[in-house]
Amino acid sequence: MKMQIATEDDIFQVAQLYFDVYQGTYPDPLMKDLSAIRTFIKSNENFWFVTKNDEGKVVASVLTRYDEENLFAKAFGAVVRNEYRVKGLMEQLLSYAINYLRENTKGVDIVYSTTRTVNEAAQTLTEKLGFKKLGIFPNAHRTNEFETHCLTAIISETAIAKRKTNYKIHHDIMEMFNIAASEVGLAPMEGIVPEKPSKVLLDPQDLEVINSPQFVSYRYNFLKNAKELEFEFFPFHLPNLVILSPDQSIELFCHLSPLDGHCVIIGGKMPSNLNFTELFLKSNRLLRDAGARYIEAIVRADRPKILESLMKAKFIGCGFFPAFQKVGDQRFDFVVFSRSFEIFDFQNVKLKGVNLAYLEQYYRAWKRTSLTPKLMES
Length: 378
Prior knowledge:
Elements: E1 2-5, H1 11-22, H2 34-42, E2 46-52, E3 58-67, E4 72-80, H3 89-104, E5 110-116, H4 121-128, E6 132-142, E7 146-155, H5 157-161, E8 169-170, H6 174-184, E9 191-192, E10 208-210, H7 213-225, E11 241-244, E12 251-256, E13 262-269, H8 276-289, E14 294-300, H9 304-312, E15 316-327, E16 330-340, H10 354-370, H11 373-377
């Protein structure tokens, strides 16, 4: 067996690998687009790793994206041919990929990944390599059925040492923080109830969805370069639609996958006195009508008022990522939120360790958000 960086000569083989294993149901369109595969392989920020057997056939694959500014990488798309799954190939290939990044980039403080829960193998694999469990994404993706994924990461001591800690945790995410803290080894933190707004907040008026990827990308980059975005950190995602008001005082950028309705809120421009809760509530309805069945957002953990607005808009905290974003000499914690329009089904979920604790915490938060007090008592 030989592990290596994929080349353009491997394009057809890797596409065939994902088709053979998933029978065309893999939710990431990258694995079906030969031109996109070529672009990924040729990029300096992306690394596609493969294992080949003695006959030169690609039998395993895993991809990584690298962010030089934040010194982290995302590993995803891990797949092994069925007949090779008992040989420990993915553990070897992922270990090879991580070591390659450490030796051939400007640094990797964090490597993170999401793992499937339809069986325990993926969770066991990342656990063996030192990934810590940071959260859960209920019914986040759809292949043959809706799948729940887990958030995991290797977080270096260097990253933890730079972590900003002089803030207080929103009291409603304290339970989730405590699970992550026990997993990673973080010191306890104090909870806080956010203060009520000190000024009158303006409700967003008419909003509409503009689904025009090239315009949206141009507009997003323009506002980002002009530093006009309120929040704009969602690694490795580019917007392809925007929710905006007629006067463009509000512009909320999102990425929506047409294949499985997975949507992420990437960032936006808006007035400082905007009612964020109403913005997210209206955006939820617009995105659902546009085809989203699951929405994800991440917010810095030291911004309790925005966290409060998201939770009032029926987003539920599902993950806590310590030391995620690098700004100067500090690294900031983030809270991951999700909003699903599907009926939850966890019968096919097989969870290991604290992943079950995250799911139980999520379910309790869902009951607080979605049920009346009378129903919660039953």
